[in-house]
Amino acid sequence: MKVYEKAPAKINLMLDVIRKREDGFHEVEMIMTMVDLADRLEMEEVPRDTIIISSQAGYIPLDEKNLAFQAARLIKDRYDVRKGVYIHLDKKVPVAAGLAGGSSDAAAALRGLNRLWGLGISEEELCTLGAELGSDVPFCVTGGTAVARGRGEKLERISNPPQCWVVLAKPPINVSTADVYGKLRAAELKTHPSTSAMVSAIERGSFTDICDNLGNVLESVTLQLYPEVLQLKEIMQRLGADGVLMSGSGPTVFGLVNKEAKVSRIYNGLRGFCKEVYVVRMLT
Ligand SMILES: C[C@](O)(CO)[C@H](O)COP(=O)(O)OP(=O)(O)OC[C@H]1O[C@@H](n2ccc(N)nc2=O)[C@H](O)[C@@H]1O
Ligand SMILES: Nc1ncnc2c1ncn2[C@@H]1O[C@H](COP(=O)(O)OP(=O)(O)OP(=O)(O)O)[C@@H](O)[C@H]1O
Q1: Which of 174, 217, 225, 268 has CA 20 to 30 A from 73's CA?
Q2: In which residue ranges of the chain is CATH 3.30.70.890 found?
Q3: Positive or negative: CA dihedral 172, 28, 73, 11
Q4: Which CATH class is domain 2-158?
Q5: What is the spatial distance between Cα 95 and Cα 108, in angstroms, rounded to a whole number?
Q6: 99 among annotated binding-site residues
Q7: Distance 1 CA to ligand 1 centre (A)
Q8: CATH code linked to domain 165-281
Q9: Are strands 154-158 and 253-257 parallel, antiparallel or unpaired?
Q10: Domain with CATH 3.30.230.10 in the chain
Q11: Catalytic site residue 136?
């Protein structure tokens, strides 16, 4: 038997950091949603008790460093599954982009192996397992749109934003999430985006208010380290995107656009500056 799972990319419509915690992580308040750019996982049982990962993408680890491998090992250990699995990752989400590609693969592996092995694990328990693999994994298990608190694992489901176009542009640089959080001086932040204003804008389905309330405090670090990300934001704004923000710790910048007529102009304009540009829809 084979099972298939999609692993969509996430964007942060809002990301605030409340404080640095004693365990080294940061207490956050974020609003995340999914877009329809996704990896695809194929999972099949193999006769030996082993985990094999393959992918067409030459630039990700295929050993125990792969987050889908870690998800498979975790579920096998925790539920004492003495069976093997072959996981093929069809990568479409750019890597180390701020789009949670690896986290979403891990979440999809948890969901898929739960089905493949008929384990009957609840979604809540899959989220708890996912939190051991990374802060973004619990959200990637549930998908939808949520406010995430704690280090990202405490989720409160909210309604999906109104449908719109999302233009993603990833400059050719690698950004380390740990490095960005490490350089953030949370106590010195002068302004914070408003969670309640963004939740209210989403619940009311107001595209304009969503665009007006976009905010990500990690931009203060990444934009300083990589001026090309700031430049990309400015270009996207100039080309007419209605709301523009960096996702996660970057470097991907996304633009929200509500009129289809504007999308191709923005896409073509960006392609002059950036090789990796995607036009996608919100997953609603
Ligand atoms: C930037 C975001 O992607 C936004 O959604 C997340 O906050 C980060 O999620 P992630 O990549 O799943 O992060 P993890 O793999 O758990 O952590 C990577 C590193 O980021 C830092 N980190 C992460 C999450 C958090 N709330 N505080 C942190 O300080 C820690 O140094 C950690 O070692
Ligand atoms: N299945 C996977 N897909 C992509 N990257 C993976 C995977 N497994 C492990 N990695 C490693 O994880 C690192 C981060 O990749 P990922 O694409 O998850 O970053 P990201 O989009 O910045 O995530 P986040 O938004 O959660 O911070 C890369 O260095 C990559 O080598």
Answers
A1: 174
A2: 165-281
A3: negative
A4: alpha beta
A5: 16
A6: yes
A7: 35
A8: 3.30.70.890
A9: unpaired
A10: 2-158
A11: yes
Q: Give DSSP secondary structure letters for 8-58.
A: EEEEEEEEEEEEE-TTS-EEEEEEEEEEEEEEEEEEEEESSS-EEEEES-T
**Does residue 106 contact residue 150 with C-beta atoms inside 8 Å?**
no
Q: Is residue 90 a contact partner of residue 42, using CB atoms and an 8 Å limit? A: yes
Ligand 1 pocket, residue 139 CB under 6 Å = no
Kindly report the protein residue whose alpha carbon is nearest to atom 1 of ligand 1. 248
Cβ–Cβ under 8 Å, residues 104 and 248: no
pLDDT tens by residue, 76-128: 999 999 999 999 999 999 999 999 999 999 999 999 999 999 999 999 999 99
Contact 24, 271 (CB under 8 A): no
* Whether the Cβ atoms of residue 241 and residue 255 lie closer than 8 Å to each other: yes
State ipTM.
0.97
Contact between 218 and 184 (Cβ < 8 Å)? yes
**Tens of pLDDT, residues 188-234:** 899 999 999 999 999 999 999 999 999 999 999 999 999 999 999 99
Q: Which of 16, 39, 136, 242 is catalytic?
A: 136
